[in-house]
Every structure is written in C-alpha cells, then in structure tokens.
C-alpha cells in the first residue's frame, strides 16, 4: 500500500482515558497510563501516524502530564517518544483551545475526542466541517438530533466519523455477536456494568452535572445490543428508573440530581417477523463497592429463539492475589501494558488499541483514495451512521427520567426521532 501516508492526529481531552493523568494525579483505575496517547505514540513508532497534538482546557497541566508520560511510557518502553504539540499554549486556560488546534490542521488530518460527554457534539462538528476525520468516544452525542446532524455533516464533508465503541473489537463480544446471528429471533437482553464509587472523585468535574451513568457506561452494552440486532430488530419504547442517595452523600457530595444506578427498560420489535417482540434491560452504576477486585463489572445475557449467550467480561479466568491488596482480576485483552521480549510496547492486540488503529487505518485509506467513508457503513464498523439507535435509546432514557414517562422511538421520513 505504497500510497498510504502517515496521519496527523489531534487528541482532544487530556484526562484519564487519553493520558491516565487525572486532576488528582495518576489515575487509580485500570488506566494509569491511559489508552489513547499510548496507542497513538505506538502507532507513530510503527509508521502509521505522524504529527500528534493534545488539546485540553487548562494549559498549566501540561508539564505534569508530560512528566507522567515520560516516566511511565517513555522510560518504560523502548523507542517510544511521548512528544506532542499542546493547546492551549503557555499555561493558558481556554475551553475553546481545540478550535485553534483544529484551525492549524489540514483536511484529511484526524481528531480523536475524549472529552466530557456534553462537549462531544460541538468538537466533532467543528472538526468535520473543516474536512477532518473524527473518532469520538461514546456516547457520541447526548441528543439524537445532534447525532443525526453529525451523520449529515460527515456525509457532506466526506470524512470518516467513527464512535469509539471498543467493545465491538473484544474477541469474546465479536464472537458472541456472530453466534447471536444464528439464534433466530431476539427475545431478551440484560446487561450490567458498574465502576467503583471512587470514580465519582475522578469524574467530579462533570458527574451528575453534565452527564449521567447511563450515558457514561450503559452506552457500551446498548451499542453491543444494537450491533447484534442491526437489521434484525428496532427499539420502539424506553422507560427509565434510577436509584439515588449514595453519590449525593458523604464523602462524594455530588450535585443533587446525580443518580447512582440507572436502568433502561427497552421494547424491541423484529423487522422480519410481525409476531416477535423482545425486551432489553440495561443497567449501569458508579456506586459499586470498592475493593471488588475489578475496575468495571460487566456482564450480559442474550436470549434468542434457539439459544442463549452469557458473557462475563470482568472475570476471564485470570486473577492475581497480592498480600497487601488482595485479589484482582486483570483484563490484558483490553490493554496489555507489560513490554515485549525486546522491551517494546506489546499491547497491539488489545481491543482498546485495535479500536483506535482501525480508525487510523480507515482515515488513511480514504486519504489514499482506496476507500470512501460510506464504505465503512456497509460493514460492522461503529460509524456515526451505524450507531444512531444507541444514541436514540440513551437520549430516550434521559427524557424518561426527567419527564417521568415512557418515550417512543420511531423513524419519520427516514430520520429517527423520539416522541
Ligand atoms: N476513562 C475511561 O475509562 C473511558 C473509557 C472510554 C471512554 N471514555 C470517555 O472519554 C471521555 C472523557 O473521559 P475521561 O475518563 O478521559 O475523563 P476525564 O474527566 O479524566 O478527562 C476529560 C478531559 O477533557 C478535557 N476537556 C473538557 N472540556 C474540554 C474542551 N472543551 N476541549 C478540550 N478538552 C476538554 C478536560 O480538560 C480533561 O482533560 C468521556 O466521554 C468518557 O465517556 C472514558
């Protein structure tokens, strides 16, 4: 593929997922050195990526972020440079620094967005309108109307826009998806995902104010369910229920409207059979117990006409017990941080890495004229067009909680709407 050129990438957001650096120091989660920065530094080492930039809000954080990345990545893995251009520059504070960064880019470059949920739409749109390919983390947007607008903008400007639903690249989930296709009509899906209460500290700048736990965590399994049911069934109605009281009490003291655990009950209808209807229950919590030995509890159950599937992604038959800290179940299938035999980064097969690499590959193929952005819609990729029903369900769940009523989902003149 001689005409594939290296991709210039701007990372928007400098937080836990990008650098592993939180406002309070290195993250205490399972992402102490982040995922996005590390993956892109490695893709630069391997020749797929060229210039790298990082845009945040508070420029005074960059010296500490650079030190953290140098100590934990640059000094740990062989041949790994951690350099990048920073925005805002000179220690300034500017929530719109991403605009200056994007204005300095060229059409065909790329932006990877890991910022608070309520900022995804405006940053994505700004980039797309300038001909920049976009990888935006989940939830792509909080409003269905915004998701529809991003689909239209990506088509108009002919750019790749993927939602970073990395669980689609988990070998167990993608195998389970293929097996679900053989089980006939859909009947029942239930998913549980939770993180320990300590995350309320990490996310205190926005938790409960700018987003909720359903958008933050249930987005993962709602997307998996929508992916399994693509072209088989559609969601028609959402009713939400929330448990409260832990996040808003000592020591977390989140804003009064913060929910602890949110459940969405969703009706689905078969596309191919008038008789078959299904039910899905998606629950997410950020008030799960501390010291459970796992960072994210995550399991789901799928039942079809001819069989069922059980997935427990938190416990994979691999645990480590240490005197001081007790038992921990690790997930190197997601990000493997231990170096290779030669001392290089060795996590290229982790699905956290693959998800970003597939986007980089897609953008490079489009830039080289080997593919069109619309080609990826025809595949199982989490393109902005292929993920519309995930946002429809999440948005309907939020409206159901706020307005205490069931919310319908339907297609009107080719566009998905809530009612
Ligand atoms: N932490 C995870 O494990 C994880 C996993 C997958 C996806 N995500 C998603 O990534 C996003 C961010 O999560 P995080 O865990 O890194 O959060 P975080 O709170 O640690 O970091 C958020 C970052 O966004 C920056 N930011 C805020 N407004 C901005 C703006 N206008 N322009 C540029 N940067 C801005 C903040 O400065 C901060 O660096 C969320 O949407 C989340 O759903 C997180």
Automatic annotation (TrEMBL):
Residues 107-165 form the Gfo/Idh/MocA-like oxidoreductase N-terminal domain. GO terms for biological process: NADPH regeneration. Pfam families: GFO_IDH_MocA. GO terms for cellular component: cytoplasm. Coiled coil: none annotated. One of its GO terms (molecular function) is oxidoreductase activity. InterPro entries: Gfo/Idh/MocA-like_OxRdtase_N, NAD(P)-bd_dom_sf. This is Gfo/Idh/MocA-like oxidoreductase N-terminal domain-containing protein. It comes from Boletus edulis BED1.
């Amino acid at each position: 593929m001689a005409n594939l050129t290296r991709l210039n990438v701007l990372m928007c957001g400098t937080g836990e997922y990008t650098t592993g650096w939180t406002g309070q120091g290195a993250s205490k989660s399972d992402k102490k050195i982040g995922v996005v920065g590390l993956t892109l530094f490695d893709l630069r080492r391997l020749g797929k990526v060229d210039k790298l930039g990082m845009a945040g809000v508070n420029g005074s954080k960059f010296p500490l972020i650079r030190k953290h990345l140098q100590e934990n990545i640059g000094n740990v893995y062989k041949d790994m440079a951690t350099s990048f251009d920073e925005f805002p520059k000179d220690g300034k504070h500017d929530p719109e620094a991403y605009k200056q960064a994007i204005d300095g880019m060229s059409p065909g470059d790329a932006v990877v967005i890991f910022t608070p949920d309520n900022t995804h739409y405006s940053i994505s749109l700004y980039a797309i309108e300038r001909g920049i390919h976009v990888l935006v983390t989940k939830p792509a947007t909080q409003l269905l109307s915004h998701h529809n607008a991003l689909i239209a903008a990506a088509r108009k400007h002919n750019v790749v826009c993927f939602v970073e639903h990395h669980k689609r690249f988990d070998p167990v989930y993608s195998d389970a998806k293929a097996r679900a296709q053989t089980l006939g009509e859909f009947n029942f899906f239930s998913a549980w995902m939770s993180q320990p209460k300590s995350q309320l500290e990490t996310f205190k700048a926005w938790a409960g104010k700018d987003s909720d736990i359903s958008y933050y965590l249930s987005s993962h399994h709602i997307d998996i369910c929508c992916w399994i049911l693509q072209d088989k069934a559609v969601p028609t109605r959402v009713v939400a229920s929330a448990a409260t009281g832990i996040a808003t009490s000592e020591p977390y003291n989140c804003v009064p409207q913060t929910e602890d655990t949110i459940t969405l009950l969703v009706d689905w209808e078969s596309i191919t059979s008038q008789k078959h209807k299904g039910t899905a229950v998606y629950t997410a919590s950020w008030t799960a117990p501390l010291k459970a030995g796992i960072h994210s509890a995550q399991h789901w159950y799928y039942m079809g006409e001819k069989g069922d599937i059980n997935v427990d992604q938190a416990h994979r038959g691999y645990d480590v017990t240490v005197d001081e800290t007790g038992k921990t179940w690790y997930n190197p299938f997601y990000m493997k941080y231990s170096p290779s035999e030669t001392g290089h980064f060795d996590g290229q097969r982790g699905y956290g890495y693959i998800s970003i690499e597939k986007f980089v590959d897609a953008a490079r193929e489009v830039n080289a004229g080997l593919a069109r952005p619309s080609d990826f819609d025809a595949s199982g990729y989490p393109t902005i067009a292929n993920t519309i029903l995930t946002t429809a369900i999440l948005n309907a769940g939020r409206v159901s909680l706020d307005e205490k009523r069931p919310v319908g989902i339907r297609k009107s003149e080719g566009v998905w709407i809530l009612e």
